[in-house]
Prior knowledge:
Elements: E1 13-17, H1 42-56, E2 62-64, E3 66-67, E4 74-77, E5 88-89, E6 92-95, E7 100-106, E8 110-116, E9 121-127, H2 129-134, H3 136-146, E10 154-158, E11 168-169, H4 171-180, E12 188-191, E13 194-197, H5 199-209, E14 214-217, H6 232-237, E15 246-252
Parallel strand pairs: 2-7, 3-5, 4-6, 10-14
Antiparallel strand pairs: 1-15, 6-9, 7-15, 8-9, 8-10, 11-13, 12-13
Amino acid sequence: MIKSKKLSKYRALQHGFFNSKGGKSKGIYKSLNCGIGSADNKKNVSKNLEIACKKLSPYYEKLILLNQIHSNKFHFLGKNYKKYKTKLTGDALVTNQRNLIIGVLTADCVPILIYDKNRKIVSAIHAGWKGAFKGIVKKVVKFLLKNGCESKNLIAAIGPCISQKSYEIRKDFKTRFLRQSKKNEIFFKKIKNKTYFCLNKYVYYQLKSLGLKKIDIIDKDTYNHKNNFFSARRSIHKKENDYGRNISIIMIN
Length: 253
């Protein structure tokens, strides 16, 4: 489990970015695969989720994850969160409830955890390039600001994701971003006629443009097998038929 130095300062908060180590799964899912949507053994995935949650607290009430769709849709979980019997669809969760763990699953995309130390509210965001492009980060932060948070009190941790050196893209990908804004040119680098995209830098500048000053970047490349993360792109390059998911979770004590 990897922790953000900035988020770790607060005793009222528990969080963690997990890689693939320390679980029960076998084969290509070895070992802490938390992807319920994967083709892994469901019992092993459930055990893995429990292992991750208990790293945060043995007293947590519930873990809530999402059916992630690379969108800009998020859900706020208030005191009536227990009414949700089925899995929510979207790419971010926000809650002010104690002992409720919220999380997102990634396998190269960016996990973002946000905490407001004054309002005691947290968020977990799944930001792949599509979600980030569609504004999932902006929508969540705008919601927090609208509901009493101040940007100076928001602490954000950008978790492990695919690094720029591992993220080769096609020409039409870059064209789409430049149509959105010419300023997006800074997130691309050309090396030997190949173009690479920096996803965590793109997300970082989005947070910064919304007024956040306390931003932690955990610079670990999920594609690099030495870092022990699940990676969709690495799995595709190895011609594997599926891949595990890394979990990132946060909870107010």
